[in-house]
Inverse folding.
C-alpha cells in the first residue's frame, strides 16, 4: 500500500471574483491509477469561505477532474465542484451552469496576467518609485532589458504540461512583467477545469519565487497608458467548425448583441477599466464584430474566412480575472440561441 496526496481544489464564495482554495487528503491505495472512480467526495467549512453559515457549515467537494501533481511525490490535483449538503449545486458553482454535456463546444482561453514582486508590490521590470520605458518593446521580447520573469513562466509551462493539461503556448505581453499562456480543450467544462488547474499551479509557484499573480484587468490604473489583461475566449461548436456559410457566422455574432448585459456581468470585475475602446478593446458600452478586428467585441479570425467560413470565433471581452466556467456558460447559451 502506498500513500498518495490528493489536493482537493475548489472555488470559494467571494463575489464577484472567486478565489482558489485547496486542502490535502492523504490516502492509502494499493495500485492507484489516477481516476475519479478511485476517490470520493470530501467536505469543508463553508463558513470560512463565504459559502455557508456557521450553524450549518459543511459544503461538499465533488471531484470532476484529476491530474498528476508534477511538484509532489505521489501527488494528484483534484478539481472539484462545490455542492450543498443535499447534493445540489452551490450558488457559487459556475461549472454546473454549463449546458455542454456532449462536449460539442471547444474552447481556447488566452490567460493574461501580471507577475508582481512581493517586495516592491510592482510588476517585474518596474523600478522602485517610477516606471519603465513605455510599452512597445516588451511584447514577445527577448533579452534582459525588456523580458522579465522568463524562468518563472517556463517553469509554469513545464508544470502544466507534466500535469497533462493541453497547454499550447506562452508569450510576454505588451506591458512589462505581463505574460500570457494559452490552453485548449474539447468540452466547455473541461476547458474551465484546465484553466483553474493552470491558475492553481501558477499561484502555487509564486510561493517559491517571492512573487504573486495579479489578475486584475487594469492593475496599473485605468488612466495609465498600459494595456490591461484579458482572457480572450476562442470558441466553436460543430456548426462553426463545419458550416462554410458567412451568413451563419453573422447570425451567431448577432446573437451576442441583445445579451451584452448577461455576458459583461460574468466577464470579470473591474472590466470597465479595461474595455474602453483603447488598447485593442471595444468599449464596454458597445457591441461589434468584424473580420480580423482586434478592436471589436467579437473577432472573426482571418483564417476562418480563408478556410471557407469554417472554424471559430473569438470573444475579446472577458477579463483576466473572470471565471472560465461562467464565460463558457454564457457563450454556450448565446450560440445555442442563435436564429439560424
Amino acid at each position: 500500500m502506498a500513500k498518495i496526496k490528493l489536493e482537493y481544489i475548489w472555488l470559494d464564495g467571494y463575489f464577484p471574483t472567486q478565489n482558489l482554495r485547496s486542502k490535502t487528503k492523504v490516502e492509502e491505495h494499493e495500485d492507484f491509477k489516477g481516476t475519479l472512480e478511485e476517490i470520493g467526495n470530501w467536505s469543508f467549512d463553508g463558513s470560512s469561505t463565504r459559502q455557508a453559515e456557521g450553524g450549518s457549515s459543511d459544503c461538499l467537494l465533488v471531484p470532476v477532474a484529476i491530474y498528476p501533481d508534477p511538484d509532489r511525490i505521489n501527488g494528484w490535483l483534484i478539481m472539484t465542484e462545490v455542492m450543498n449538503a443535499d447534493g445540489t449545486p452551490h450558488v457559487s458553482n459556475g461549472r454546473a451552469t454549463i449546458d455542454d454535456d456532449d462536449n460539442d463546444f471547444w474552447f481556447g482561453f488566452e490567460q493574461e496576467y501580471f507577475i508582481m514582486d512581493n517586495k516592491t508590490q510592482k510588476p517585474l521590470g518596474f523600478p522602485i518609485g517610477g516606471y519603465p520605458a513605455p510599452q512597445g518593446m516588451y511584447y514577445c521580447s527577448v533579452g534582459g532589458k525588456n523580458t522579465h520573469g522568463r524562468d518563472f513562466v517556463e517553469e509554469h509551462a513545464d508544470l502544466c504540461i507534466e500535469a497533462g493539461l493541453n497547454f499550447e503556448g506562452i508569450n510576454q505581453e505588451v506591458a512589462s512583467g505581463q505574460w500570457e499562456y494559452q490552453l485548449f480543450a474539447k468540452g466547455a467544462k473541461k476547458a474551465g477545469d484546465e484553466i483553474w488547474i493552470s491558475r492553481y499551479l501558477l499561484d502555487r509557484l509564486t510561493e517559491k519565487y517571492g512573487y504573486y499573480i495579479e489578475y486584475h484587468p487594469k492593475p496599473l490604473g485605468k488612466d495609465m497608458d498600459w494595456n490591461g489583461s484579458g482572457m480572450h475566449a476562442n470558441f466553436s461548436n460543430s456548426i462553426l467548425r463545419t458550416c462554410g456559410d458567412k451568413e451563419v457566422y453573422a447570425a451567431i455574432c448577432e446573437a451576442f448583441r441583445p445579451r451584452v448585459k448577461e455576458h459583461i456581468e460574468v466577464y470579470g470585475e473591474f472590466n470597465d477599466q479595461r474595455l474602453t475602446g483603447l488598447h485593442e478593446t471595444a468599449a464596454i458600452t458597445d457591441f461589434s464584430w468584424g473580420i480580423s478586428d482586434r478592436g471589436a467585441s467579437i473577432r472573426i479570425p482571418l483564417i476562418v474566412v480563408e478556410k471557407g467560413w469554417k472554424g471559430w470565433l473569438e470573444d475579446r471581452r472577458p477579463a483576466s480575472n473572470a471565471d472560465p466556467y461562467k464565460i463558457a456558460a454564457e457563450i454556450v447559451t448565446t450560440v445555442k440561441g442563435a436564429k439560424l
Notes: The chain has two domains: 2-92, 106-336. The mean pLDDT is 95.
